[in-house]
Amino acid sequence: ALIRGKNTLIAGDTNQLPPTNFFKGLSSDDEDEDEDLATPEESILELANVQFHPKHRLLWHYRSKHEDLIAFSNHYVYDQELVIFPSPVPATKTLGISLIEVNGTFQKGINPAEAQVMLDAIVQFMKDTPERSLGVAVMNQSQMEQIESLVMREAETNKVVSDYLDFWVSAREGLEKFFVKNLENVQGDERDVIFVGTVYGRDPLGKFYQRFGPINGPAGKRRLNVLFSRAKEQIVTFSSIPMADFK
């Protein structure tokens, strides 16, 4: 493709990790152990960044309708260099970021209690604000499959859910249909609201291991940057992580 043009423009963000196959082929036992498997992370964008000149950096952030949504990434990833447009209103129940704490346990790659709480919130969201698009992102493949199956099962008997799913298949040209994805394949998506499930928590014996799968790896910050920059209006995080256990 490159040799067929007189000029080439390659655009992207090296601070965001492209989709990977990190979870492909992992068993539930592997996810439970959370081994930090090595994954190749070099891309054509990174190669071009070294070889091609001149380089230009875009600084305006357009997506977030509230500055809280981009605050994490701006501080920890972009060195406070992004031009942020302040919201005319403070964070509300439908705007900004919020946390829902769940007393769930993590075993065999899933957190059933957290998945159920998220399902309840998804159904309530679809009932209360059907005009807003929604995406769900969780930390691993097993939890993704768990929540996705719960939503599909709910849609079989709950017309509110089935109507919501059908509506967003075609609304906005189908570009913002409902999804449940894991950390590794949510790149490129944007929705009005993103529900984030952190999945990890204490095991059934009450012990908490500070292992977070691919986030523990060298590209963990880039993965989190992808995750926390998907929402236009609101991020709601559901977490069973006992924050008091962090040293």
Give the biggest sheet. 5 strands, parallel
Instruction: Kindly provide the radius of gyration, computed on alpha-carbon positions and rounded to a whole number of angstroms.
Output: 19 Å
Strand order of the largest sheet: 1-5-4-2-3
Strand content: 5-15%
* Secondary structure: helix percent: 25-40%
Which structural class best describes the helix and strand composition? Answer: alpha/beta
* Chain-averaged pLDDT: 87
Order of helices and strands: HHHEHEHHEEHE
Please report the distance between the alpha carbons of the first and last residues. 50 Å
Can you tell me the overall shape? Answer: globular
The stretches of 5 or more residues where confidence is low (pLDDT under 50) are 34-39
Report the strand count.
Answer: 5
* DSSP summary: helix tally: 7
